[in-house]
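User: New here, any thoughts?
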Amino acid sequence: MMDWMTMDPFGSHMTGSGTPIWTVMDSAQNNFYWIKNAQGYPWDVKKYDANLIYDWVTEVSWTDPRNFKKHLGSNGMGYPLTPRFVPYTIGAAASMLSQIKIPSSSTNFEIHDTPGNCSAYHKSNLGFAKTEVWGPYYESLGGGLPPNTETLHLHWMWSCDSSYRNCKTKEVYTLMQVYGNVRWQNYKLSNGQYVLQQTSLRNVVTSGTNTPVHPCWK
């Protein structure tokens, strides 16, 4: 799944009608970054080990890299998003390929929102949550992306009931090999149906690299 979630390192990043993404690997720390601005922050930071990829850090502020949310999870690495390896059959009908259920005891996170301060924080919780990988899909997303290209969809859902149903929020990441995270969609549950609130499409390959700015950790 690392191959789906990260852009190949050929000196470019993804832009489009939504927020751009620069993918930066930090293999020494078992991290990778989705940087959302040319200044080096904000970012989403994913951790990984031999078995799983985790959601570790995301932004609080777009103007202060010392403000962020740190997801704790059960092992301090964050919430498990997906196994490292998810098998599927090329050309098969799309189906759910993976599901991880996360109890409310493992969705605690720190909110570091004091301006200029790395260490001050308060805690919150996402309740019951789950992640799913669906696919394969074959999509034509326009821009500089090749048509009818294979994608996988990573679903991240939280504020679910104790049966992991009726999750109030669903985020969907469209992942494409070579290009990485090419689309983000945010849905809210309304009257039993998910209603799209926001879409960020990145379908243009743009020259230029980036370096993450993160003064609060190595």
About this structure: The mean pLDDT is 97. The chain has one helix and 16 strands. The first helix runs from residue 2 to 5.
